[in-house]
Design goal:
0% helix; iron; mainly beta; 120 residues; metal-binding; 2Fe-2S; Rieske Iron-sulfur Protein
Length: 120
């Protein structure tokens, strides 16, 4: 296993991210609700740069009494990242896609003395 120094822990703000090269891999590190989550920068759909996609709250489509969607709402508790190639969305905390069959590949993190390391 190899360990890569990424940055200081405070360098990634809540709701922010940092994408770094670790050897021949790219890893995206996100901070959500104060916790850091690291994912390989490969969308499972077509291997697009998922970690460089748009970050936003989960989109919720409420269905009314006529079984129609009239508006969109956002669930601020679940932050998602969308692949810039085809728009596939993944929960940043779990790595899961809404369909459930697809998920991001997690990278291990280590935090020592305020420094963030990726372990591959």
């Amino acid at each position: 296993m190899a360990e890569y120094l990424v940055c200081s822990e405070e360098e990634i703000a809540d709701g922010g991210r940092k994408v770094v090269a670790c050897g021949d891999k790219e890893i995206g590190i996100f901070r959500v609700k104060g916790a850091l989550h690291a994912w390989h920068n490969l969308c499972p759909h077509r291997q697009g740069p998922i970690c460089q996609g748009r970050i936003y709250p989960q989109v919720v489509e409420p269905v009314d009494g006529n079984r129609e969607v009239r508006t969109l709402r956002y669930n601020e508790e679940n932050m998602h990242v969308a692949c810039p190639w085809h728009g596939w969305e993944f929960d940043i905390e779990t790595g899961r896609n809404a369909i459930g069959r697809y998920r991001l590949h997690r990278a291990d993190l280590s935090i020592r003395e305020g420094q963030v390391y990726v372990v591959l």
